[in-house]
């Protein structure tokens, strides 16, 4: 996974992330993006799988924010054999209750979820992978991933248009 660097300092979660070889990136260090891209290249060489959350945040599920493309620089040019696998999560009727949006802190979100009675269903939708080599730049790759997610996400929301 790729995660913001602050998560690496969180109790328990940061430790679990490090066990999973999470690549931590700094959202504020624009000058360090080249080093972060190199970290991602190393991760691809070692595991051939990285997970990026391209919206850069969590939404309430009714919108799909523009995808941020800087970290997709790792795909310019794409390593041989690499495919992009778009995925989206659907929490169904519980999305507003479960989603971490707005100014909620990590601590209050964790507490809210861990003290919530019962369980909830999460659908993980693995969409058709595509070859990033067919796109001219990282922005086009991000736009294609977003396009591929928008239609089935809209359908899962009962046809509500995704902006």
Describe the fold and architecture.
- With 163 residues, this protein is an alpha+beta fold.
- It has 2 domains: 51 residues, no CATH class; 103 residues, no CATH class.
- It has a two-stranded parallel sheet with strand order 1-2. Strands 3-4 form a two-stranded antiparallel sheet.
- The mean pLDDT is 83.
Structural class: alpha+beta
What portion of residues belong to β-strands? 5-15%
Overall geometric form: globular
Order of helices and strands: EHEHEHHEH
- The total domain count is 2
Mean pLDDT over the full residue set: 83
Unreliable residue runs? none
Q: Gyration radius, to the nearest Å?
A: 17 Å
Strand order of the largest sheet: 1-2
Largest sheet: 2 strands, parallel
> Share of helix among residues?
25-40%
Q: How many angstroms does the end-to-end distance come to?
A: 26 Å
Number of helices: 5
Extended strand count: 4
Task: Write a concise keyword list for the protein shown above.
globular; 163 residues; two-stranded antiparallel ribbon; two-stranded parallel sheet; alpha+beta; 33% helix
What is the secondary structure topology, with strand pairs?
Layout: E1 2-4, H1 13-19, E2 23-25, H2 33-47, E3 87-90, H3 95-98, H4 106-114, E4 123-126, H5 138-156
Parallel strand pairs: 1-2
Antiparallel strand pairs: 3-4
